[in-house]
């Protein structure tokens, strides 16, 4: 499945792109592609906006290009949609599908009536015998959403987004999600022309960035063709680790630390009082703070819901330690550590006898990485998955709003064995 990703300039977002169609048709003639994808918020129909009008516009654009297309819209009520159409569908292929953003939007997918004639979907697209899943913007950061949408491991997942606050965060997320799905994870966003920053689309497989098959430019827009079957990889960016050592709660190999890792034991060793234990964790009291330390084999990192499933209490700080018997591949493990820390508001630490890597969510943007022994945490932004919600009483487009908590937690996902 070859994908043509259109990265438009700021001035082209939300406006008609008829002149770009001709350039895109020439690219399609030169490099046959299977589907055309635009970034989040590319289209807005203004006074004529309606689901019927958006669907008609999507079909018109797809027919003009001669290919199936995924067109993201900003709707008049503030929703962020992505409509897929394939007027050329063969039997068994998806003809139409609507995806709606759940987070960071004033009108969420949770607000849509489920009996609409074209209801928001969680199912992937079928095209040419392969499956293509669509994720909009920051929805990719929420594990229950991803458990539902990435069920069955689609062959290709494309994340259409607006300009990210941190390109590095998105790259690490894409790398980690590619490991989870054992498929290709791509993202495309508008071309950032301010401050001389040029953020191109990326595709990841097995946590490695893939070379685009083809690139071109026209009138400020840039175009990239990715072929997930073409396993030609770029050199990953160098991981940057923090040189700031925190001391509020430390983990190391000596008894001087708050928690000691002993590779010949499968228990949590601490010099502080343990106030409660579970099969894989213990709640430890240090001064007047409770730190809930979880201990797992490193293979648990690949399970996107294991942190959500873990026992937790309001007000605790959470640290998840993943133990390996031998050195691990940091190009695979570090993106997973970053993603787990960021999507769950916890700290994560992978340890082997000769290699330690840690991650925790920063207080503003980004994720801090650590590569020294002992590792110390300041216990900020570590309160666990119940703290991912934003408390907003209005329709401001912030995060996952607290009044959607029951909808989010009720998202259907496969029954899983309870390991606790």
Entry keywords:
alpha/beta; Nitrilase/N-carbamoyl-D-aminoacid amidohydrolase; 2 domains; 7-stranded mixed β-sheet; 7 helices; 29% strand; disordered C terminus
What does this protein look like?
With 420 residues, the protein is α/β, with parallel strands linked by helices. It folds into two domains: 3-226, Carbon-nitrogen hydrolase (Nitrilase/N-carbamoyl-D-aminoacid amidohydrolase); 249-387, no CATH class. The protein has seven helices and 26 strands. The protein has helices spanning 18-30, 51-65, 143-149, 167-181, 306-309, 330-344, 405-409; strands spanning 3-7, 35-37, 69-74, 80-85, 96-100, 125-127, 130-136, 156-160, 184-188, 202-205, 208-209, 214-218, 221-226, 249-252, 259-260, 269-270, 274-277, 281-286, 289-297, 317-323, 347-352, 355-361, 367-370, 375-377, 389-390, 400-401. The strands form five sheets. Strands 5-4-3-2-1-13-12 form a seven-stranded mixed β-sheet. The protein has a seven-stranded mixed β-sheet with strand order 17-18-19-20-21-22-23, with helices on one face. Strand 10 (202-205) and strand 11 form a beta hairpin. Helix 4 packs across helix 6. The longest helix is centred in the first third of the chain and has 15 residues, at 51-65. The two termini are 40 Å apart. 43% of the residues are buried.
Low-confidence stretches: 414-420
Tally of distinct domains: 2
User: How much strand content do the residues show?
Assistant: 25-35%
Q: How does the helix and strand content classify structurally? A: alpha/beta
Give the name of the CATH architecture of the largest domain.
Answer: 4-Layer Sandwich
Count of DSSP strands? 26
Q: Rg, please?
A: 22 Å
Question: Biggest sheet, strands in spatial order?
Answer: 5-4-3-2-1-13-12
Biggest sheet features: 7 strands, mixed
- With helices defined by DSSP (H or I, 4 residues minimum), what is the helix count? 7
Shape: elongated
